[in-house]
């Protein structure tokens, strides 16, 4: 007698093998996605830090190009500039404190301190923020790349540069400071 045993189902061993293979594939795919998200966050925060640092650098250089007079505080944390932009006087100041970079811009005499935070993730980079030498100022700082949770996501981006006064004749800070 010939009994026909159909293959209508899976054996327990076949089911266990399929579950193990699917588990391994699921783990591999999940690991790839997690690593992709972490890489994307590192690139995004590094890009934000670079953009923030470039903004600070360009504003300092713009202020110095149009400066009539400028001064750097004794500790190198503050730059005060009396500039002439488009024929109008502007009092500008940049300061690096523990909570970030502060800036003020006004047409009238400016307050000595208490300026709003301009860029949060800017920090001192070993050297003073500003160093004055004749009609130039050298700036050095780091832009921190922080994640949304506030942890440092990648190495800081270090900025250093020298900004020059375009005006050869030195003026006075008197109207501003």
Report on this structure.
- With 177 residues, the chain is of the alpha+beta class.
- It has one helix and nine strands.
- The protein has one domain (12-164).
- A hairpin with a 2-residue loop joins strand 3 and strand 4 (100-106).
Helix and strand pattern: HEEEEEEEEE
Number of helices: 1
Can you summarize the main beta sheet?
A: 5 strands, antiparallel
- Oligomeric assembly: single chain
| Cα separation of the termini | 111 Å
Find the count of extended strands (DSSP E, 2+ residues): 9
Low-confidence stretches: none
Mean pLDDT level: 83
**What spatial form do the alpha-carbon principal axes imply?**
rod-shaped
Instruction: Write out the strand line-up for the largest beta sheet, numbering strands in chain order.
Output: 1-2-3-4-5
Structural class: alpha+beta
**What share of the residues lie within helices?**
25-40%
């Amino acid at each position: 007698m010939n009994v026909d045993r159909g293959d209508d189902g899976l054996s327990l061993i076949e089911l266990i093998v399929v579950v193990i293979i699917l588990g391994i594939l699921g783990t591999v795919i999940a690991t790839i996605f997690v690593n992709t998200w972490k890489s994307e966050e590192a690139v995004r925060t590094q890009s934000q830090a670079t953009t923030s640092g470039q903004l600070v650098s360009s504003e300092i250089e713009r202020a110095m190009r149009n400066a009539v007079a400028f001064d750097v505080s004794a500790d190198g944390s503050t730059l005060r500039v009396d500039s002439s932009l488009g024929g109008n006087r502007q009092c500008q100041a940049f300061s690096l404190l523990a909570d970030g970079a502060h800036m003020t811009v006004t047409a009238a005499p400016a307050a000595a301190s208490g300026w709003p935070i301009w860029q949060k993730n800017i920090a001192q980079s070993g050297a003073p923020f500003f160093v004055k030498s004749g009609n130039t100022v050298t700036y050095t700082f780091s832009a921190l790349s922080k994640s949304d949770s506030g942890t440092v996501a990648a190495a800081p981006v270090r900025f250093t540069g020298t900004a020059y006064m375009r005006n050869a004749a030195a003026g006075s800070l008197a109207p501003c400071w």
